[in-house]
């Protein structure tokens, strides 16, 4: 699904954040990208989203080099990215309105896009339990509800790749765990490839069947921790979870 | 603002005015009753025409300002480069009281409506430009990135983010500068025109020494300013939600 081959990127050419960095992600996998602040996690996510472009090497998604944001990729950020003047429902509808605005042009909107109607959005609002606040504005609802709105907006577009940047880090522990489980189950149900950027070791362990560790820039080595047991029910309370957390903590110290 | 509060304030002002007129007891301050009569009289003798002339000049000034300042402000707010080039210019021009340009604009553009509308434009344009630019600069980068990742290009960002984000800025700018715009309108209407409330007030007061009629003109000009102010308020209630 994602193929990064000898990628180089730096905001300033003399100080690359990634240098000869390679990474492969297969369809349907769930990945966490873990690292300390300033290691280039968010940069990697923006590169994958097509919002930044590599200065060297290859970055392709689904076999195509990524030159601009790919319409089948969903992006969810920490501060939700909601329009403050639009209601929850209007915000959730925004992706569809954008598709109507451009039409299936292959650039902004997939060419083969099925006509998605507002009912899909209402279904998502219902499933994500925010239908009761659909007519309220982002300023009037809780952080968890805002993030659910962003998720509803993204999933309504039926993405095959979901990128998340610290999506739950500003939420209460319980709400955050709840949303982690929800996101995982939705991605598994729809076969969505999931990549979550996080600085939280616990979150990385829960959300990633594989964890990519990033160290100090420039990142060249691809450090991957296998965490396949995370797919099993009750993982959060299992010894395997604690073992993974321990491994991640140790490896993060070395990286 | 509660309608009742406004009515109470209006009544209090009228009482104060009446008291002042009675205490002063001079032709230069007629009582509200006399002025009301003069207003009614004026309405039948062309006051409405003067009102319409002034209204047209202000509204034309507002429309032209919004049409030019909003796109300019959005472009400055969207592009760091453009903002870097024009910000110092704006910084210098913005604090100049535009009323000092009255003689220059009249010299350059003559005494017709164009000069008057241009002056109102000069006042409103910079207010709207600055506030719209700041609104555009203040849009969260994460919001823009989210929308771009949903497929939004420049056109869609303009339509779905920048334009709606600029509406409160436009309304704030209008609210702040309508008073000044009407004041400058008054000054421009003192010169070589035969229509407009400024002319009406000046002519009745200084030439005919008809003070009640002069005050009727003042009342009409106040109503013009109030009407515009309430208009902006109404627009705000319709376009923006309380949150």
Describe it.
Chain A has helices spanning 41-49, 88-102, 118-127, 143-155, 173-190, 201-207, 239-254, and strands spanning 2-9, 18-25, 30-34, 56-61, 64-65, 73-76, 161-165, 193-198, 210-213, 223-226. In chain A, 35% of the residues lie in helices and 20% in strands. The longest helix of chain A is centred in the last third of the chain and has 18 residues, at 173-190. In chain A, helix 2 (88-102) runs antiparallel to helix 3, helix 2 runs parallel beside helix 4 (143-155) and helix 6 crosses helix 7 (239-254). In chain A, a hairpin with an 8-residue loop joins strand 1 and strand 2. Chain B is mostly helical and 243 residues long. Chain B has one domain: MetI-like (MetI-like fold). Chain B has 10 helices and no strands. Chain B has helices spanning 3-24, 32-44, 47-78, 80-93, 102-109, 113-137, 141-149, 154-188, 197-207, 211-239. In chain B, helix 3 packs parallel to helix 6 (113-137) and helix 5 (102-109) crosses helix 6. The radius of gyration of chain B is 22 Å and the shape is elongated.
Provide keyphrases for this structure.
heterodimer, A: 255 residues, alpha/beta, Rossmann fold, 2 domains, six-stranded mixed beta sheet, four-stranded antiparallel beta sheet, 7 helices, B: mainly alpha, 10 helices
**Can you tell me the CATH superfamily of chain B?**
MetI-like
Q: Give the total of beta strands of chain B.
A: 0
Number of contiguous helices of chain A: 7
CATH class call of chain B: Mainly Alpha
The name of the CATH superfamily of the largest domain in chain A reads: P-loop containing nucleotide triphosphate hydrolases
How much strand content do the residues of chain B show? under 5%
Strand content of chain A: 15-25%
Number of domains of chain B: 1
Note the gap between the termini of chain A: 26 Å
Average residue-wise pLDDT of chain A: 89
Task: Indicate the radius of gyration of chain A in whole angstroms.
Answer: 18 Å
């Amino acid at each position: 699904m994602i193929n990064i081959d000898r990628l180089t990127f730096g905001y300033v050419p003399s100080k690359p954040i990634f240098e000869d960095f390679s990474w492969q992600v297969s369809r349907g996998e769930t990945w966490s990208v873990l690292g300390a602040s300033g290691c280039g996690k968010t940069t990697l996510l923006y590169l994958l989203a097509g919002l930044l472009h590599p200065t060297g090497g290859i970055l392709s998604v689904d076999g195509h080099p990524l030159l601009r944001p790919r319409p089948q990729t969903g992006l969810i950020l920490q501060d939700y990215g909601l329009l403050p003047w639009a209601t929850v429902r209007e915000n959730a509808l925004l992706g569809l309105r954008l598709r109507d605005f451009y039409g299936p042009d292959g650039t902004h909107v997939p060419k083969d896009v099925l006509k998605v109607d507002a009912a899909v959005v209402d279904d998502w609002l219902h499933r994500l339990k925010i239908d009761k606040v659909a007519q309220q504005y982002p300023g009037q609802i809780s952080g968890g509800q805002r993030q659910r709105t962003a998720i509803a907006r993204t999933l309504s577009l039926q993405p095959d790749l979901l990128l998340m940047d610290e999506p739950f880090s500003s939420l209460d522990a319980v709400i955050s765990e709840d949303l982690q489980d929800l996101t995982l189950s939705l991605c598994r149900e729809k076969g969505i490839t999931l990549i979550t950027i996080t600085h939280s070791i616990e979150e990385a362990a829960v959300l990633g069947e594989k964890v990519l560790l990033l160290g100090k820039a420039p990142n060249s080595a691809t450090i991957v921790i296998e965490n396949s047991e995370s797919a099993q029910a009750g993982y959060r309370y299992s010894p395997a979870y604690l073992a993974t957390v321990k491994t991640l903590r140790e490896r993060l110290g070395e990286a | 603002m509660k309608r009742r509060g406004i009515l109470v304030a209006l009544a209090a002002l009228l009482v104060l005015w009446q008291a002042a007129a009675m205490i002063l007891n001079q032709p230069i301050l007629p009582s509200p009753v006399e002025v009301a009569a003069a207003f009614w009289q004026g309405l039948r003798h062309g006051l409405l025409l003067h009102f319409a002339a002034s209204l047209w000049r202000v509204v034309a000034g507002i429309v032209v300002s919004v049409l030019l300042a909003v796109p300019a402000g959005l472009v400055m707010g969207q592009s760091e480069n453009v903002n870097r080039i024009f910000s110092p210019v704006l910084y210098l021009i913005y604090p100049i009281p535009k009323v000092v340009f009255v003689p220059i604009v009249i010299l350059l553009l003559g005494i017709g409506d164009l000069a008057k509308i241009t002056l109102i434009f000069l006042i409103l344009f910079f207010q709207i430009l600055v506030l719209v630019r700041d609104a555009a600069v203040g849009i969260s980068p994460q919001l823009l990135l989210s929308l771009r990742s949903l497929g939004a290009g420049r056109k869609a960002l303009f339509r779905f983010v920048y334009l709606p984000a600029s509406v409160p800025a436009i309304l704030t700018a209008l609210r702040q500068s309508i008073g000044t715009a009407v004041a400058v309108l008054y000054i421009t209407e003192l010169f070589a025109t035969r229509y407009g409330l400024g002319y009406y007030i000046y002519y009745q007061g200084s030439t005919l020494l008809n003070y009640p009629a002069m005050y009727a003109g003042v009342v009409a000009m106040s109503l013009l300013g109030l009407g515009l102010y309430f208009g902006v308020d109404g627009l705000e209630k319709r376009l923006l939600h309380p949150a």
